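ok so I'm stuck.
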Amino acid sequence: MLHFNLERADLFNKLAGSATFYLVILKILPNPFRALIIGSSGTIGSAFMELLKNNHACSRVVGIHRHSEYALDYQHPASIENCADSLSAEGPFQLIINTIGVLHSRDWMPEKKLEDLNADQLMAQLKINTIGPALTIRHFSKLLDPKNSIMVTLSAKVGSIEDNRLGGWYSYRAS
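replied:
not stuck anymore, here's the structure
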């Protein structure tokens, strides 16, 4: 498993130099392959877009996000199915990578102590980090090539139980 805690340029270099990433691309996927990046406007998603656009084996890469032609917004769960339906003519895809996730927003930061935990923040985290990805798997798996494909949903190390030595960030870790 790869964990990244890097600035955008370093992230791109890490992804591009990752033997694991190229193993997936070159050994498992057909050549050529088509890719879909969910959350392509974010730091990680845009790095994957750039990496795949420069990969000779990737014949097409499509990026979607809240403001793309086929919009997908985890705050509005109906947009997940609508987006997948709209992209059905673009498929099949051999690689789908979901990079959507949130640690904090303009309205709230990660909780540092249990007293900071509140229901609105917890519900928002669950909607974006748990419900959204689950519904994405449900609706976007139909866009995968039945012969040979991979669907990846990224998560962060800070969300793991193993990385909970410092405590805090309760709603993020729960999601």
